[in-house]
Amino acid sequence: MDKLGWAVSARVMRKWFAGEPYELSKSVKQGDLAASTLSAEKLLTDIPFDWLFSGSKRVKPKIDEFVAALSSSSEFNNSVGRLKGSLDELSRGLVVLMTRLQRLGLLDAKAKKLKSAYLDYSDKTALELEEISQFNLIRFGATDWEKATDALDDVYGALGTFVVKVAATKLRTISNDNGFPAIEIEQIGLYVRDTYDFLNAGDDQLLGYWSEEGVVRPGPIDYVTEPKLIEKGGVEYHKVTNGKFNEYRKLHGKGGDFMIYTAVKLYDVSFIIHLGPIDFDEYLSRSGSK
């Protein structure tokens, strides 16, 4: 990774190899147990968000598109507004945000009311936003097409498939705006939450073919057959899987999983949605609120 100039990839890999043997639990990995409960050595929280832009050409266009959509629309938005042409009119992100507001005592779904308030979380860390105002995410490298075509770069080496979390950092709840309760988002905070671990959800996950010279992408047939090595340009690239790291941990007593949270990147946006009685009824039905 050093030879490739992948500074962050090399750093996180060294951290794993230097760590005491530790395997992240599924409850932490899936978000059922807050990452804030982990000890400091099981967290990496100082990677700048802008590294995503310098370390890969594929991230910024997707981020810019997401932010632009929250600055050029109202009421309808796939991430935190209504959905067009859907049986469920409220987006999943809006349902999550309404739940956040309910926990803060600002939303009463049964009474179909919002309390007027202004919330400013712009000074919060990613770990804090994760628990108070995160409402949606942006996926990277998750589709088969992305896996086959995404550039092999520092972001790929450090994170692989990952998500950028989206949190409301400045928002206003309005009890009555032209006859309707409303939620207005003025700023969002973006950050990466990722697990640096080698858990297998099924078959032993292929991580790539590596040599001292770097990494190569398997061809379509190699993805299916997964040979032990691939030869290109006279160099042998060996198959690396999650299982190899787990074997190393058992053999050498080193290898500590950890969570990655980048710094928060703030974006000013302008989005408002008004909520009617039907919206509150849908929220009650989908959220299971009593």
- The portion of residues forming beta strands comes to 25-35%
Overall average pLDDT: 92
What would you call the structural class? Answer: alpha+beta
Compute the CA-based radius of gyration.
22 Å
Low-confidence stretches: none
Largest sheet: 7 strands, mixed
How far is the first residue's CA from the last residue's CA? 52 Å
Number of strands: 13
SSE string = HHEHHHEEEHEHHEEEEHEEHEEH
Helix content: 25-40%
The total of helices stands at 11
Shape: elongated
Short structural summary:
The chain has 11 helices and 13 strands.
Structure description:
With 290 residues, the protein is an alpha+beta fold. The protein has a domain at 42-197 and 265-287. The protein has eleven helices and 13 strands. The strands form three sheets. Strands 1, 4, 5, 6, 7, 12 and 13 form a seven-stranded mixed β-sheet that branches. A hairpin with a 2-residue loop joins strand 10 (229-232) and strand 11. It is elongated. The N and C termini lie far apart (52 Å). The mean pLDDT is 92.
List the helices and strands and how they pair.
Elements: H1 7-18, H2 26-29, E1 43-47, H3 51-55, H4 59-69, H5 92-103, E2 107-108, E3 113-114, E4 117-120, H6 126-132, E5 134-140, H7 144-149, H8 154-159, E6 162-177, E7 180-196, E8 206-211, E9 214-216, H9 220-225, E10 229-232, E11 235-241, H10 242-252, E12 258-262, E13 265-274, H11 277-287
Parallel strand pairs: 1-12
Antiparallel strand pairs: 2-3, 4-6, 5-6, 6-7, 7-12, 7-13, 8-9, 8-11, 10-11
